Fold:
Amino acid sequence: MSKITLYGVPVSPYVRKVRAALVYKSIPFDEVFVIPGSPDQPEEFKANSPLGKIPLLKVGERFLSDSAVICAWLEREFPDKPLLPGDNFEAARALWFEEYAGSVMTTAMAGHLFAEVVLAKAVFKREPIQSDIDKALNEELPAIFDYLESQISGDTLLGSGFSLADLAVGAISAAMLHASHTADPEKWPKTASYLSNLLEGELFSPLIEEEKQLLASFG
Ligand SMILES: N[C@@H](CCC(=O)N[C@@H](CS)C(=O)NCC(=O)O)C(=O)O
Structure:
């Protein structure tokens, strides 16, 4: 098997998704810490990440960008513990949740909540933008929780068990957890229970613990 190296920071939701997929499939990998936009990025990253974004995956001497592309490759290369169900329609639904998590959920949970509540002061060295936090808390997250509440089927999003849908939704929901927010169990009982089981489960909890230590080091 070619050596696999992941470039990025673990607190990025897209990097977290790839880390979780690698761990889920028991694939060994190395990591290189890269903060997007920072001046001291490794030359290898600059030369091989066409948009300068994380995650970037090195496989042997070749490179793949974009978390969805990387997960698609992992699924084909390491099919033993599948993240996509065998049923074609259910597989497409898993991809839909990956898209929803990577767009709508990421804007609210990472762009508006995590960035402003956690990163603004500690990393960006500025005051948080309160209007972004308010928009996430009052408009975006309630709409997301309403939608998830209507979709959750038992312990997972797809009726067929754990899939890429849960991996992608968990990867972004960890950003909300870092910002100390959860779905109110009174209003969204299925979503609150689903998210806490997912994030406190054996896949995500060790990753989140590691990230908490990293965030603490940011001051
Ligand atoms: N669609 C991409 C998005 C990746 C992305 O936006 N990563 C952010 C960090 S969370 C980044 O690298 N931003 C730097 C930039 O946009 O220049 C993926 O799924 O990997």
